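User: Can you predict the 3D structure for this chain?
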Amino acid sequence: MITKLIPRKVFFTSGVGTHPENLESFEVALRDAGIEKFNLVTVSSILPPECEIVSRKEGLEELSPGEIVFCVMSRISSNEPRRTLSTSVGCALPQSINRHGYISEYHAYGETAQDVGEHSEKLARSMYSTWTNESPLRTLSFPRSSSVDEHGNWMTVISAAVFTI
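Assistant: Here is the predicted structure, written as structure tokens:
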């Protein structure tokens, strides 16, 4: 029997990590987001039909260390002192639970969390509307922003929509 990999639930999370090494700043950001224990596979932008949005806590309880986990992730890194890094995932919820919605990812240098949040919602809304010719039921975003320290350590900022099967 073939089982389809269609997520039943999604949760949203974000993290910031700083470290002298770029890769380790990403690891610290994953820890801050609570998703460092998983083998993350990034996917594109579809929110499956009937996919329930749950809290980070509830979503994490369904996952096991080492599990292959699908996510839509926005990621940005820099070691330029005092540079602002921002990420966001936006979500457009469908008018009908039986249809799919959209998740967008967006990142930028020098923009605020509010700016990237609004932009990621706009992207998700546009992707949904061009497919359905209607407005989504609602949109939401999960932005995160931080600035690189003055010593030039690497910083990574992430925002993610994490799926559970």
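The first helix runs from residue 22 to 33. Helices lie at 22-33, 56-61, 113-132.
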